[in-house]
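Pilot study result, target chain (258 residues):
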Amino acid sequence: MTDASEFKRRLRDGDAVVGHWLSIGHAAVAEVCARDADFAVVDTEHAPTDIDTVADTVRAVEAAGDGTTAALARAAWNDPVRIKRLLDTGVAGVLVPMVETAAEAREAVEATRYPPEGVRGIAGSRANDYGRDLAEQVASGGDHLVTVVQVETERAAENAADIAAVEGVDALLVGPADLSGSLGVFGEYDSETFRETVEDVLDRAHESETPVGTLATSEDEIRRWSDYGYDYQIVGTDAGYLASGAERAHDAYDDAMR
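Predicted structure:
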């Protein structure tokens, strides 16, 4: 299992960390993508990824990065049961979607903490070497985990300062598709409305020195988000890499046959 302490430190220190998004749910795909990455996120919100697959994918990420790549998982919802089950697979931390208030951010943090700081159930699992390190992990208070909450609505953007200031929130992640949709400018990432909202989120989060990242799905978006001033990026998705590679091969064949 990868300890997230170093990854958390690098986020807080403003290091340029880069990650990949994993939605296909296959260990081999995760292993290919995770090499040389700082982190990888296994999606369980919009992907049909079950708990067994998350566990196998996490093992592949850890193997590809020689234990240095932080394997995170996105929960399907801000639900302590769903978060608990992900944490038991041995992920280094979780992304929690659709967090709109400081109270919801605190609920997300509490779901990652054992009592008395939180509500996570105590049991032997892969996360604690099947019970061998359980006492040590309970005593750590969740410091070995990273908790990232997602800003995906206009309401969340307005509350970004309060959300970012919640103790235990290590970073924010802006979901560009959902946020732009909430603002009524879906996909219009160069619009004044979207850009000003993102800049406000960055400014408000940085008041508490909380880093803010986002997801890019193309090289143009990587450059656009860098220009926006995000602190870190997920630079693409496994399905996107596969699709773009297939399209380039088809285009090359078409060109060659003309």
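One observation from the pilot: The chain is about 45% helix and 15% strand. A full batch analysis is planned for the follow-on phase.
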